[in-house]
Design goal:
- By secondary structure, this protein is mainly beta.
- 0% of the residues lie in helices and 48% in strands.
- The protein has no helices and 14 strands.
- Strands 1, 2, 3, 4, 5, 6, 7 and 8 form an 8-stranded antiparallel sheet that branches.
- The protein is elongated.
Length: 171
């Protein structure tokens, strides 16, 4: 049998996201996605349906850890299954940047992981939540900003706000 190609992830896996999602061959005999720890020991299996990989990651994948994913051809654990080519990946913490905020422009902008949301704050008061676009950019505007104001941006992962960035307005 020809080895199954390396599967692909739809996005890098970010700690706190419920599912690790990916794609592989659409074959009725390919129904499992085996995840191994970096040392090669088996960890857990996820499902594959019509070539779509879905692995329940919450509380299973740890930020900063590396893993190996392989699709399984045949019945997992049967002794006759064949593992596809390995996909090495890491569970990462969501990143966020915050550009300098200037009182005359009142723009809060920066970068984070595409598809997430960012909540912005001014002096400890939540202002708005905006999406991060496919290029990893977010932008919002504030009605007023003064020198000395503390602006914060934080990434939303599921229902939790995680990584933050902060800026004190200087001009």
């Amino acid at each position: 049998m020809t080895p199954i190609d390396v599967p692909t992830l739809k996005t890098p896996h970010i700690d706190g996201i419920t599912y690790l999602l990916g794609e592989t061959v659409n074959d009725p005999n390919v129904t499992a996605f085996a995840v191994f720890k970096e040392d090669g020991t088996w960890y857990k299996n996820g499902a594959i349906t019509n070539g779509d990989i879905k692995f329940y990651a919450t509380a299973n994948l740890v930020a900063g850890q590396k893993y190996i994913g392989r699709v399984v051809y045949g019945k997992s654990g049967s002794g006759t299954e064949v593992l596809g080519m390995p996909l090495e990946f890491e569970c990462i913490k969501a990143r966020i940047t915050l550009n300098p905020v200037i009182s005359t422009q009142r723009i809060v902008a920066g970068t984070s992981e595409a598809g997430l949301q960012v909540r912005t704050w001014r002096n400890g008061v939540a202002r708005t939540t905006v999406p991060v676009d496919t290029a990893g950019q977010y932008t919002s505007s504030l009605s007023s900003v003064a020198v000395g104001d503390v602006i914060k941006a934080e990434v939303k992962i599921g229902t939790t706000y995680a990584t933050t960035a902060e800026w004190t307005v200087r001009e």
